[in-house]
TrEMBL record:
One of its GO terms (molecular function) is glycosyltransferase activity. Residues 4-125 form the Glycosyltransferase 2-like domain. It comes from the Bacteria. This is Glycosyltransferase. Coiled coil: none annotated. Transmembrane segments: none annotated. GO terms for biological process: lipopolysaccharide biosynthetic process. It comes from candidate division KSB3 bacterium. One of its GO terms (cellular component) is plasma membrane. Keywords: Cell membrane, Glycosyltransferase, Lipopolysaccharide biosynthesis, Membrane, Transferase, Transmembrane, Transmembrane helix.
Length: 126
């Protein structure tokens, strides 16, 4: 496995299909082995059902459901534990991180960098 994308989430039923669509588009063009690890941090909306549908339709999708909300740090740690990739990318499920930046991040790793980070320059908090 080359790339693992770890995505912690809480109550993101509306953004999940959009995020998945963008990730699918990006990875279809990249021709890399990958997995998308969604960590459902005790959502009370229909996020679990949306994720189950994605998992059932795509073998790249891994879902971890927490019984209750443990917080983003615990969700991220669980995602790192599940990750099988040589490269691990962490991103939020709320569409604040652009999946189309993933090829640029991976290119920097391929240039020999050990760690690559990005930043949001047009953040939209709700």
């Amino acid at each position: 496995m080359r790339i693992s994308v770890v995505i912690p989430l809480l109550n993101e039923e509306e953004s999940l299909p959009l995020l998945y669509g963008e990730l699918d588009e990006v990875f279809s063009a990249m021709n890399e082995s990958y997995e998308l690890i969604f960590i459902n941090d005790g959502s009370t909306d229909s996020s679990a059902e949306v994720l189950a549908g994605l998992h059932n339709s795509d073998d790249h999708v891994v879902v971890v459901n927490f019984r209750k909300n443990f917080g983003q740090t615990a969700a991220m740690a669980a995602g790192f534990d599940y990750a099988q990739g040589d490269i691990i990318i962490a991103m939020d499920a709320d569409l604040q991180n652009d999946p189309h930046d993933i090829p640029k991040l991976v290119a920097k790793i391929d240039e020999g960098y050990d760690v690559v980070t990005g930043w949001r320059y047009d953040r939209k908090d709700t």
